[in-house]
Amino acid sequence: MKGCAGGGGDDCKPVRGGLYSAMPKVSVIIPVFNRAWCIERAVRSVLDQDFPDFELVVVDDGSTDGSASLVPEDPRIRVLRMENQGVSAARNLGISQAQGELVAFLDSDDWWLPRKLSCQIEFFAANPGAVACQTQEMWIRNGRRVNPGLRHRKPSGDIFLPSLVLCLVSPSAVMLKKSLLDEAGAFDESLPACEDYDLWLRIGYRHPVYLLDPVLVVKTGGHPDQLSRSPCLDLFRVRSLAKLLRSRALSPEQARAAAQELCRKAEIFATGCEKRGKGEDAREVRDLARLFTAPKEPA
């Protein structure tokens, strides 16, 4: 990774902290960019977990507001610093430095309840064949608790088809085996947003992602720096679906459903672009839709 303090890639050195004294069970990765207002809360929620066998890797993605300086001193914490390259690159740097068998992510504006790690560790112990699980979460928008709509309800098990419509796995709620990221690949750094949608589809067509009932994550929203506020989300989703279809890794049923959803998203996005005078973006998604539209049967 370019721009990490002390060198890139395997030569990356922590700004603060050293390697965990023993191989931890879980590596927790928090990327942060200019989140001085909330990073300490997120970190404290990890340190307050009732499962102690973890390391915490905080990746400062070129913050200019002193975010990293607010991370408390603790032998379980490493702080890495890189030039600003986006949340995917920051998470991927954390993954490359992680020592644990399992990986959990936490966004810097969210926080965990104390049993989050232990609940998921218990699940993996009882289900050794599983590779990924997530917990339920509480949503806070603009300081008020809100209930997710029906379309946001998380499935358990085979998530691929319902996840084509929108992202149904929360980075802050998921825990997965690190070996799964070797198989499916890490976050796509070419996507400015929807990088999580992209990864969960790449995982979901291969493996089940299980849902645990307890609400163990507090997910916040409404602040202006959220990537989910981007007006181009469907553009990035269409690009992700096109990449997945080009891989030719999907089953026939999965490929048909992915192509149908790509065409649906492309039409919605292109129509909006044309109304706003953004013809280039409209042409891009319409061209992708034509590539994956099945020819009609002759009458």
Describe the model.
This protein is of the alpha/beta class and 299 residues long. The protein has nine helices and nine strands. The chain has helices at 39-47, 87-97, 116-126, 160-163, 178-184, 195-204, 233-246, 252-275, 279-291; strands spanning 26-32, 54-61, 77-82, 102-105, 111-112, 132-141, 144-146, 174-177, 210-221. Strands 1, 2, 3, 4, 5, 6, 7, 8 and 9 form a nine-stranded mixed β-sheet that branches. Strand 6 and strand 7 form a beta hairpin. It is globular and about 55 Å long. The protein starts with 25 loop residues before the first strand and ends in an 8-residue tail after the last helix. 43% of the residues are buried.
List the topology elements.
Elements: E1 26-32, H1 39-47, E2 54-61, E3 77-82, H2 87-97, E4 102-105, E5 111-112, H3 116-126, E6 132-141, E7 144-146, H4 160-163, E8 174-177, H5 178-184, H6 195-204, E9 210-221, H7 233-246, H8 252-275, H9 279-291
Parallel strand pairs: 1-2, 1-4, 2-3, 6-9
Antiparallel strand pairs: 4-8, 5-9, 6-7, 6-8
Roughly what is the average pLDDT, rounded to an integer?
90
SSE run? EHEEHEEHEEHEHHEHHH
What percentage of amino acids are in beta strands? 15-25%
Largest sheet: 9 strands, mixed
What's the N-to-C terminus distance?
55 Å
Number of strands: 9
Overall shape: it is: globular
Number of helices: 9
Which regions contain 5 or more consecutive residues with pLDDT less than 50?
A: 1-11
Quaternary: single chain
Helical content stands at 25-40%
Strand-pairing-aware structural class: alpha/beta
CA radius of gyration is 20 Å
